[in-house]
C-alpha cells in the first residue's frame, strides 16, 4: 500500500530536512552577534569573544572563534577590500553594523579561509536577510560580488600544466 502513495514531502538524499541550519551557519550567526556587539559597545572583538565564551552554554563553536579572531587579526585588510568594492560615494561606516559584520565575515572566508566564494556570499546574504534591512541582501550580495571579482587569480603551482 505504501508503494502506491505519493511522497508528499521529499527529503534530501541525506535524509535530513532541507531547513536544517548547518553548524557553520550557526557559528557565523554567533560570530556576527559578537562582532556587532563589540562594535556597538566600542570594544575589542576579542574581549567580547572572551566574555561570551565564558558564559556560553552550550560552548561557542570553534568556527565562531575562528571567525571572530580572523576578523580581528585581518580587520584592516578586510575593511580595505570592502571599501574598494563599495559604490562611489559610499563608505564602510555608513553601512549598517549588521551588514558590516556580515561583510567582514564573508571577506575573511573568501580571502583567508578555505570557504568557496559562493558559500561565503550566500551565507552573508542569508544573515542580513534575517537580521537587517530589506535592502541589505542585495547590497551585501553586490559588494561581495565585487570583492570576488577583484580577487587575484592564484599563482600557477608546480602541479599546473604549462
CATH architecture: Orthogonal Bundle
Helices, by number, come to 6
Report the strand count: 0
Instruction: Please identify the structural class as seen in this structure.
Output: mainly alpha
Shape: globular
CATH H-level superfamily? NusB-like
> At the first level of CATH, what is the class?
Mainly Alpha
Radius of gyration: 19 Å
Summed over residues and divided by their number, the pLDDT gives a mean of 87
Q: Quick one: biggest sheet?
A: none
Secondary-structure element pattern, one letter each: HHHHHH
The total tally of domains equals 1
> Helix share of residues?
55-70%
In angstroms, what separates the terminal alpha carbons?
Answer: 61 Å
Description:
The structure is a single chain. The protein has six helices and no strands. The protein has 162 residues and is mainly α. It has a single domain, classed as NusB-like (N-utilizing Substance Protein B Homolog, Chain A), CATH 1.10.940. The longest helix has 24 residues, at 62-85. The protein is globular. Keywords: RNA-binding, Transcription, Transcription antitermination, Transcription regulation. Residues 26-148 form the NusB/RsmB/TIM44 domain. Residues 13-22 have a biased composition (Low complexity). This is Transcription antitermination protein NusB.
Outline:
This is Transcription antitermination protein NusB. By secondary structure, the chain is mainly alpha-helical.
Mind sketching the topology for me?
Layout: H1 23-41, H2 45-55, H3 62-85, H4 97-112, H5 117-131, H6 136-149
Helix pairs in contact: 1-2, 1-3, 1-4, 3-4, 3-6, 4-5, 4-6, 5-6
Keywords: RNA-binding, Transcription, Transcription antitermination, Transcription regulation
InterPro entries: NusB-like_sf, NusB_fam, NusB_RsmB_TIM44
GO cellular component, one term: cytosol
